[in-house]
Amino acid sequence: MRRISSRITRHLIDAPVSPNQLTWLMMFTGILGGAALLVPGLTGAILAALLIQAYLGLDCVDGELARWRKQTSTTGVYLDRVGHYLSEAALLTGAGLRAADLFKQHGGPAWMWAFLGTVAALGAILIKAETDLVDVARIRRGLAAVEDTASVPRAAGVARARKLAAALKFHRLIGGVEASLVLLAAGIADSVHGDLLFTRIAVAVLAAIAVLQTGLHLLSIVLSSRLR
Predict the structure, then answer these.
(1) Around 141, how many Cα atoms within 13 Å sit in the side-chain half-sphere?
(2) Cα angle vertex 59, ends 55, 62, to 5°?
(3) What pLDDT is recorded for position 174?
(4) Is the alpha carbon torsion for 57, 126, 178, 186 positive or negative?
(5) Summary mean pLDDT of the chain
(6) What is the CB-side half-sphere exposure of residue 91 using CA atoms within 13 A?
(7) Which of 131, 162, 161, 142 is nearest to 226 (CA)?
(8) Alpha carbon of 138 to those of 126, 131, 145, 197: distances in Å?
(9) Is the pLDDT of residue 15 over 70?
(10) For residues 69 and 19, is the Cβ–Cβ distance under 8 A?
(11) Could you report the per-residue pLDDT of 137-171, keeping only the tens digit for each?
């Protein structure tokens, strides 16, 4: 994506658009990606995947443009973080509503799936909040922002578990880009199978990963040196 975004950014250097405006567009595109999952059939899954790729591209372009013009700002950082929160939550919520068969294409709605999508969305937000709140807590105590080396847990067993999780990368599945591709694969399988079975499996798996990762990530932070 960086190879693509850099080509776009160079054409925007003198354009009448600010980095923060692009961040707002990124946010809107990401939320629209979640809403696209409400479109029935494979069309919705494809639209969602394409919109999330556009969201990723805009996420690169706004930062590149800000650095090139030397227009980086606290507002820009804040909007970028809010954009990630809202976009990933919208995607997972949309996945739950899709699995629930909101428009009764397959005999629904079955609200359990909407609940699981909401659980996955809440988990994705909480994981990001757990990370961001480390700096909030440190700054309120008059400390500097956390160093990367402080993220390693002090307990040897937890450190090994963290390395294993990082190697497996299962936690990345609830990220916007990865989740959209999982849902696209599920949508393709559903189009062959003729129902929402695979989307529902995907939503259940994403919800389980979100719950597990929320707890493990919190434990990793508390047992590391980030809060000291």
Answers:
(1) 13
(2) 130
(3) 87
(4) negative
(5) 90
(6) 37
(7) 131
(8) 18, 12, 7, 45
(9) yes
(10) yes
(11) 999 998 888 776 555 555 556 556 556 656 656 67
